[in-house]
Amino acid sequence: MSSPPSPGRKTLPARGQPWSELHDALSALRSADTDWRHGRDSLDVYYAGEDVLDVARRAYAMFISENARAPQFPSLQRMQDDLLQISLSLLGGGREAAGTVTIGNAESALLAVRSAYRAFRARRPQVRRPHLLVPASVHPVYEQAADMMGLELIRVAIGGDYRASVQTIGQCIEAETMMIVASAPSLPFGTIDPIEALGRIARDRDVWLHVDACIGGFLAPHVARIVPAVPRFDLSLPGVRSLAADLHKFGYAANGVSVLLYADADDQAHQLFEYDQWPKGLWRSQTLSGTLAGGAVASAWAVMHYLGETGYRTLAQRVMHLRDRYLEGIERISGLHVLGQPDLSVIAFGSDEFDIHAIGDAMQARSWHISRLTAPAALHMTVTPVHDQAVEAYLDDLARCVLAARS
Ligand SMILES: *Cc1c(COP(=O)(O)O)cnc(C)c1O
Questions:
Q1: Which of 25, 127, 211, 230 is deepest in the core (most CB within 10 A)?
Q2: Which domain holds residue 379?
Q3: Is 171 strand, coil or helix?
């Protein structure tokens, strides 16, 4: 007999409720959520329109019960294979390249760090405390991966251009350095790190270079067709050993699907985990979770085939055009300045005149979801296609909030 539930803790309802009531209840729960459909979210929703969402939703519903990592669903194996081949084609994978579909960058990061660690260990077993070396702008998920693996991570200052400093990183490489992680672009500043130069150093010093292209992976290849000056960061660059890209960001798939790619399948071999000392015999896994949502995989597959190259390029064009409108609008407001030169659609802006976070508070009071940086203090956003509905209103409100802060 189990003990009675703690007072005040929610319990399972005694009797089930019909969907009509649940739909109303869910809609009510949603009432305080940010209205992303009209461009009021600044960070976490990648919405390319009702038609794209509808394709993703239908495909998700078709495979909602299937586990994409269970072998009895060859359909999902095939879809993952297609997603990987398309990703490798977009991101410079050569003949030797390979990859894995993952749940998101947290899983990709942990797997990449473990692969790099095992590759390093195989070559230099005598090194006591191998470490990761990263520019300060790298996402904390790599900090978390290092922590989980009991590895040290050394963060070094970035340059005045808000990019990784090739010089600083070069100076900090030691015999214990097993891995460098750089971003394309970094989440805080939207700048693509100098991957080509870092790749040269990494190769010369025999250090694994991993590229976190979560945001840029499925945007930059299409932007590069329009804006030739986008810095390169893909698997074709010498020294880049692995790269992570989120299908659930600018791939416009449902949440929970991403890819981890390797320039050389031999490096991916380190990813495998095998164990046979339990009652069910040999257990082999290339990933962390045994379950990957079949619906998320199917949504990515369907959206990629629905949009095709032309669809993604049109959206990329729209995103970059919108990005320019935001940048121009922000620069036009006296007292505000954009940080650095964002390469894609992540932007950050601050002020030397007033407390930018107070401006953020005032914007939030006007129902904008506001993403922030702390060092330096700045407001931050990822521009997506849906922001065409919001850009004018956002800039008007921003100008009003700045004006109010002045008086
Ligand atoms: C979104 C993001 C992450 C986290 O990835 P998830 O797939 O959301 O776990 C890591 N790094 C960068 C640069 C990101 O933009």
A1: 211
A2: 308-406
A3: helix
